[in-house]
Amino acid sequence: MEPAVQSVSVCVEPAVPGDAPAILALHRRVLAEGQWFITEPDEFPEGVDAKVAVIRDAARSQNGVFLVARHQHALVGWAQVVGGGRRRTRHVGRLEMMVDARVRGVGVGSALLAAIIHWAEGSGAVYKLSLNVFAHNVRALALYEKYGFAEEGRRAREYRFADGSWRDDVLMFRLVK
Ligand SMILES: CC(C)(COP(=O)(O)OP(=O)(O)OC[C@H]1O[C@@H](n2cnc3c(N)ncnc32)[C@H](O)[C@@H]1OP(=O)(O)O)[C@@H](O)C(=O)NCCC(=O)NCCS
Predict the structure, then answer these.
(1) For residue 72, how far is the Cα from the chain centroid?
(2) Pairing between strand 92-99 and 128-134?
(3) How many angstroms is it from 55 CA to the middle of ligand 1?
């Protein structure tokens, strides 16, 4: 879908439990696009209560965060970092993010990712951000590279779609000051 506007001003802030329904609805819409994540829509069991728990866990976490992007009070994107659960991995934060298809390409993802990096730099706990992205996801790859992420490895034919086609998995990382 083409963006409705050329650029948008967004407010990025930590998610609150009341955001759970809108986050969940966006998550389901993006999974239904069928192109960007390994989970197929009917494999996504999460409900509002589970999303509320995720938001609360992130708010208590030193090495995790859940941010939302709002445009004119509508939730248009989110980004989550989940920190490692063991002493030897707790410095690594795994990133996942998505933006509403109606406002892609107008800076929402950039605003979210800039805020995630700013958060990580101030966390005192996360020293590496990492993520996985499909090799065909050129917009996401461009966004991550713009913010200093580099390719760490590539897993060929890691995923198989229902039509029998394969997807390579790109691992990316960015060290945090
Ligand atoms: C990937 C995603 C989060 C990026 O967010 P976004 O709001 O569209 O990104 P932005 O508008 O901030 O654009 C960021 C950069 O991406 C690149 N970009 C934007 N539109 C693009 C397009 N149509 N094709 C290729 N690159 C593009 C540009 O480099 C841009 O930076 P610039 O405008 O300074 O040149 C978003 O498109 C999305 O949610 N996609 C579906 C879900 C997804 O792929 N999530 C990530 C899974 S790993």
Answers:
(1) 21
(2) parallel
(3) 24
Both tokens assigned to 64: 């995790």
Q: Is the CB of 105 under 6 A from ligand 1?
A: yes
CA of 154 to the centre of ligand 1 (A): 20
Residue nearest to atom 22 of ligand 1 (CA): 139
Question: Is this structure's pTM higher than 0.90?
Answer: yes
Closest residue by CA, ligand 1 atom 41: 98
Ligand 1 centroid to Cα of residue 143, in Å, is 5
Nearest to 69 by CA among 4, 12, 21: 12
> Is residue 32 lining ligand 1, measured as CB closer than 6 Å?
no
Q: What is the pLDDT along the chain (177 residues), one digit of tens a residue?
A: 334 445 789 999 999 999 999 999 999 999 999 999 999 999 998 899 999 999 999 999 999 999 999 999 899 999 999 999 999 999 999 999 999 999 999 999 999 999 999 999 999 999 999 999 999 999 999 999 999 999 999 999 999 999 999 999 999 999 998
The Cα–Cα gap between 78 and 51 comes to 12
Structural domains of the chain in order of their starting residue, each with its CATH number: 11-175 (3.40.630.30)
